[in-house]
Each structure stands twice: as structure tokens, then as C-alpha cells.
Write a structure and sequence with these properties.
Structural class: alpha/beta
Number of helices: 11
Strand order of the largest sheet: 2-4-1-5-6-7-8
Distance between the termini: 32 Å
Order of helices and strands: EEEHEHEHEHHHHEHHEHH
Strand content: 15-25%
Shape: globular
Number of strands: 8
């Protein structure tokens, strides 16, 4: 998950901010590396207040007994409260997009808008076969994951904990679970959609998952696609950061329009 609040995340997390101009926020999950957000933050510039944080077991944050989705949503509350941010534009990538969508849905009065970067697609992609595939993948990775932790490319979580987190995401992403959350959003929400495959996906699986967004945009005028970009899931924040920054500006402008 990648996260950032821009505009107008505590728990076990360490946070940092750059202050000037309007308030803001970017949420990130499976991989946590501050450099992923550098392009977006630089493109937006000093007219925004940028607030980023290290999620549990990532960066300078401590390990935790709780890596649940509910804890991730609570941490957004804690980080914003710690920095006295009353309202924010939430920006979330991957897992972070689902966190941002849920937080915005539950806290519309505190949300200027949301930018969801290649995540939060309502889709029934998780079945028993996929669950076993996820567990098998992380079991295979368990030997070299510790080598990646110092680089920021892997959290300080066990392979089993990472598999559990991805499986929980699959359950939360089911149409009957995530669909109502997205269709109930009342704040300006923009998607930046990647192309092609992502780590662990096969064939056109990822594009079929992304297609689940069509139903939401047809039902909720607050939710629109800001851009469909050529980069894939893992490269989108590096190669298409300008599209993400432009979506933040669009949402920020809409939030200032009289209702």
C-alpha cells in the first residue's frame, strides 16, 4: 500500500510531513518505500501539505501483533490526529486504495476527496484455488524476504502474515463487500488505473479485475476514472506519477467548489 494525505497516518507507525500551502495524504502496503511517493510529492509541490507514514512493520515503524485491515484504517485516524489534520485528500495505491476508500466512506466530513491508484476494484477474484496460490507463493518467497527488508521492498512480516493480509484483501474486495463502499462514497473520488499484469498475476487476470470498476462509475457520479496509464501495477507511481498528481489537483479543485 502506498499512502499520502494531501490537502486541508500513529498506532505503531512513524510519520513525517512537509508543511506548506493546502493540507493532504498518500496511503502503501505490500511494499513500503518512501521513494515511491517522491514523484507525486515533487509534482504537487509546496502548495500542498504532504503527510506520509510508515505502516506497521515497514520503514521506521515497529512490528505489531495486529496487521489486519481494520488496524490499517485505524492508523489513518491516528496519523491525521497526531498531525492535527482536519480534512485531507487521501491517496492510496494497491492495498492503500482500499484503505483510503473505506476511510473516506466512513469519514466524509473529514475527507476532501480520494485518489485511488490501481486498487480498490470490486471483484470476486479470490476463490479457494487463488487462496492456495497466494499461500504457495509466499511460502516460496520466505527464504529471500528477509534479504529484501533492509531495502524497504519487503515488510518485517512473516511469509504467512503477508499471505494472510493478501487473502483478507481478496475477501474485502468481493463485489458484495467493496461495491457498497464505493457506491456510497459522497466525496470526489478519482481512479488512476494501470495496465497489464502485476506481481503474481497471470494472463489477463488483472485487467478483468480492473473491469469491476465499470459498475461503480456507472452508479456513482462521485467516482470517475481520471486516467488509464500504460505502466503496470508495480511501476505506476514511478512512471506515471504526473497522472496521480493531476488527479489530486482535480479532486482538490472539486472540493473547493460550492456545493
Amino acid at each position: 500500500m502506498a499512502g499520502h494525505a494531501a490537502g486541508r497516518g500513529h498506532g505503531t507507525g512513524r510519520h513525517r510531513h512537509r508543511r506548506s500551502g493546502r493540507p493532504g495524504r498518500l496511503p502503501q502496503r505490500t511494499v513500503r518505500h518512501p521513494g515511491l511517493l517522491a514523484g507525486v510529492i515533487a509534482d504537487l509541490g509546496p502548495g500542498w501539505r504532504h503527510l506520509t507514514y510508515d505502516e506497521r512493520a515497514r520503514g521506521r515503524s515497529q512490528r505489531s501483533a495486529d496487521y489486519s485491515f481494520a488496524a490499517a484504517v485505524r492508523d489513518v485516524d491516528a496519523v491525521l490526529a497526531a498531525r492535527h489534520v482536519e480534512r485531507a485528500v487521501l491517496v492510496g495505491w494497491s492495498y492503500g486504495a482500499v484503505v483510503a476508500a473505506h476511510w473516506a466512506s466512513r469519514n466524509p466530513e473529514r475527507t476532501l476527496g480520494a485518489v485511488l491508484v490501481d486498487g480498490a476494484y470490486p471483484s470476486d477474484w479470490l476463490d479457494e484455488a487463488m487462496e492456495q496460490r497466494i499461500r504457495k507463493l509466499f511460502r516460496r518467497m520466505r527464504w529471500f524476504l528477509p534479504l529484501l527488508r533492509p531495502t524497504g521492498l519487503a515488510p518485517r512480516m512473516s511469509a504467512e502474515q503477508q499471505a494472510d493480509s493478501n487473502i483478507e484483501l481478496g475477501r474485502l474486495s468481493r463485489e458484495r463487500e467493496l461495491g457498497p463502499v464505493l457506491e456510497g462514497l459522497t466525496v470526489p473520488t478519482r481512479y488512476v488505473v494501470a495496465s497489464g499484469t502485476s506481481f503474481g498475476s497471470r494472463g489477463d487476470e488483472q485487467e478483468r479485475i480492473r473491469a469491476g470498476l465499470d459498475v461503480v462509475t456507472a452508479r456513482n457520479p462521485c467516482v470517475q476514472v481520471a486516467a488509464k496509464v500504460p505502466s503496470n501495477h508495480g511501476a505506476i507511481l514511478k512512471k506515471d506519477f504526473r497522472a496521480v498528481a493531476e488527479a489530486v489537483r482535480e479532486v482538490g479543485a472539486l472540493s473547493r467548489e460550492p456545493s
